[in-house]
């Protein structure tokens, strides 16, 4: 049995570190449902050890590289082992795999996922264990959010769970910052499984690929809103898709801004995006106050993008003035008197941009 991985796995140094738990303590293996179709175990870490039994002290018989798939042998331990992978501590069960010779070997659950048509139940079991190990007491709040998201049937319930998700996201990001070392950028652990426990959000790398962050995915939110009663959440998610029109993913830079380097870029005032977003935000605000605070955030960001003295502008003066004229002439209810005063003052400054220290037409390279 020790040699069955020849030509498939490369023997290497011990991958796992000893944990504070006693990994050699074993319990009875639960009888999990077996599928009529094949279920595979796929490695989603750079490499994972294969062992003769479910223990860190068991003999290592091979190493599986990222992307390797092995048949699931039908067992998952009901005990877990604390192991550090990619600089992050996991506390997960062991999963059995079938060898080409028909024997059983074991791989640690922290570095794998289930693949196959009938793998949903097994994936959920592993996901629940991973969620509790990684997020501790916060796992209960995550479970509540998932349930509320699935059961939201009206625009009001959607709005409630939308705001619940925002608060939960902030707490999750804080834990990610604490648990995942940003210095080890080449060996960041695969945590994209978080997308499965937080519907409406996606995991992205930021800070030059050294840190994880969770962003709203308005494509997912749009689809969910279409399943509820009422149109308020429909038009609000339409607004979200307009604000993040490039790929539907909430990001640090919205559609009215062009990012030209990692930490900045230029306003697209003059391209029509500012007016489009203000018009749709005005429509949503006239329809409902369920998302008032969210719309106020969008509006504040747009006004700042137009009026802040340190903003530079991608488009030439004539296009900028044309869009500003349109915004000021359409009498949007969402714009306060203070907003209008600020926009009119900025319009006057654009008329003599160089005198007022405003950089326009950056796209020309002049």
Structural account:
The chain has helices spanning 120-135, 138-151, 155-179, 194-197, 218-225, 232-243, 273-287, 292-307, 317-329, 337-351; strands at residues 40-43, 47-51, 60-65, 69-76, 81-85, 88-92, 94-98, 104-108, 112-115, 201-206, 211-216, 257-261, 264-267. By secondary structure, it is an alpha+beta fold. Among the domains are: 40-118, SH3 Domains (SH3 type barrels, Roll); 253-366, no CATH class. α7 packs antiparallel against α8 (292-307). The protein is elongated, with a radius of gyration of 26 Å.
Summarize the structure.
The chain is α+β, with helices and mostly antiparallel strands. The protein is built from ten helices and 13 strands.
Shape: elongated
Widest sheet: strand ordering: 3-2-8-7-4-1-9
Q: Percent of residues in helical segments?
A: 25-40%
Biggest beta-sheet profile:
7 strands, antiparallel
Distance between the termini: 70 Å
Layout of helices and strands, plus pairs?
Layout: E1 40-43, E2 47-51, E3 60-65, E4 69-76, E5 81-85, E6 88-92, E7 94-98, E8 104-108, E9 112-115, H1 120-135, H2 138-151, H3 155-179, H4 194-197, E10 201-206, E11 211-216, H5 218-225, H6 232-243, E12 257-261, E13 264-267, H7 273-287, H8 292-307, H9 317-329, H10 337-351
Antiparallel strand pairs: 1-4, 1-9, 2-3, 2-8, 4-7, 5-6, 7-8, 10-11, 12-13
